[in-house]
Amino acid sequence: MEHWLTKRASLSPNAIAVETIDNGTWTFADLYDASIVFAKKLYTTSKTNKHIGILSTNSIEMIVAFFACTYLHKPVVFLNARLTQEELAIQCASADIDSVLYSDTCEALTLTLPVPCYAFSTIKQLKETNIRLDETIALDDICSMMFTSGTTGKAKAVMHTYDNHWASAIASALNLGISSTDKWLVCLPIFHIGGLSTVIKSMIYGMPILLVEKFDETIVHQAIMERNVSIVSVVAVTCSRLLNKITNETYPSTFRCMLLGGGPAPKALLDKAANYHVPIIQTYGMTETSSQIVTLNHADAIRKLGSAGKALFSAEVRVNAQRPKEVGEILVKGPMVSKGYYKQPEATERAQMDGWFRTGDLGYIDEEGFLYVVDRRSDLIISGGENIYPAEIENILLAIPGVEEAGVVGVDDAQWGKVPVAFIVTSTHVKEEELLQFCHQRLAKFKIPKHIFFTDTLPRNATNKLQRHKLMERLP
Questions:
Q1: I need a surface site. Which of 117, 356, 425, 476 has the fewest CB within 10 A?
Q2: What is the C-alpha separation between 324 and 106, in angstroms, rounded?
């Protein structure tokens, strides 16, 4: 089919594609022209059948570079700008990257990479090659790859075809709808699926995005209040920071919702959003599902508070359990689900079960078919034969005034096998005895943290997901 950007630039050339916080604007025609020129300049630097890496924080140059690679039919491997040089070198090798494009802000990370690296600004200075670009795409071709966020510490390169991205965008539109006044604020990193999927939605829908380099609650709050933003994607911690910015004001009528993903949302947070009349639409997805695959719709948002919703139109979800509300592994299928991990057939096979993708997450489905996400299977704590879900304990701790963040992990115990301990960040002075007393009133004895560690920050990845495996490194 015709390349999506070529088609969009033809259908609505003068419509705004990208805005930036400093009031820069690019139409779809601008974006198309810049991508074609960049592709013709990039052509001479990468003539192998391998892949191109992009290492950058959110910027218009990053978006142009991505689309330029698609016009050269070169799959893009998005590299996390928060990794070390050593981690990036491993990813370059495992994903068959033959060159890396980078923003000036990421130059230091490229100095020891084992492949040629070119700044966006360097490519812009090259002469255009006189080639005729093929402005079509094959839906089965790999469009992009990105490594799983690594919350378990084991990152793998997930392959996304054009069809995966297309199916994700259409399924999202069928659930949320598309309004002529929509403007999606992108503060999630484009090198993760939440950010990239919105850039692709923009092109398919003809919808403007407001691009933010990285999440900052002051900047995002001001943009919601003043820039006609209709949707913003958040995770629990960034949602909480935004809600803390609200004083006596309310969001403008143009604001439709916060799309909240990245793991189970604490009930205290959802209640707080409801009190502020901030529409929260919970969603569930992952890199392997090309972003959301289960989402709560507007009509059920209040009635099913805490649920991630139902599978999107072209998707299916079930839980590997025998009865409603019984916790089991969440399984999904649909055209947005990745075919697997690049050059890792064993990992790809382990992730499959009779045509379903094994998410590794735990949850349950109620009598009406609504999914509730409980926790990651890898984070499950088994103590004396009892299952303990860290997210449940974290939700209780987050309901305590003064507790801003909480993370729970299991540690070895001679009597019980594992017992939970908690790490918390507080905004006011809170004593450990007060926290434990609060837990005693609301949790079974075996779920109460055996120790609480106070810390200034919790380890999070670039999308602000809690990295519990890194909490283990902080144990005394």
A1: 476
A2: 49
Residue 20 CB partners (closer than 8 Å, separation 6+): 60, 210, 211
In the numeric block, the tokens 């913003």 are attached to 232
DSSP 373-441: EEEEGGG-EEETTEEE-HHHHHHHHHTSTTEEEEEEEEEEETTTEEEEEEEEEESS---HHHHHHHHHH
Beta strands in 73-200 (DSSP E): 76-79, 97-102, 117-119, 142-147, 157-161, 184-186
Would you call 169 helix, strand, or coil by DSSP? helix
Only one residue has tokens 């689309």, namely: 67
- Give the model confidence (pLDDT) of 237-263 as tens digits: 899 899 999 988 899 999 999 999 877
Alpha-helix residue ranges (DSSP H) falling in 106-178: 107-110, 120-124, 162-176
pTM for this model (two decimals): 0.86
**Fold that domain 4-137 belongs to in CATH:** Rossmann fold (3.40.50)
d(CA 286, CA 289): 5
Q: List where CATH 3.30.300.30 sits in the chain.
A: 380-474
Strand 76-79 relative to strand 51-55, pairing? parallel
Q: Pick from 357, 114, 327, 397: which is nearest to 348 by CA?
A: 357
Which CATH number is associated with domain 380-474? 3.30.300.30
Question: What is the three-class DSSP state of 191?
Answer: coil
Q: Are 210 and 32 in contact (CB under 8 A)?
A: no
Q: How confident is the model at residue 149 (pLDDT cuts 50, 70, 90)?
A: low
The pair of structure tokens assigned to 282 is 């919970």
Strand-pair partners of 460:
466
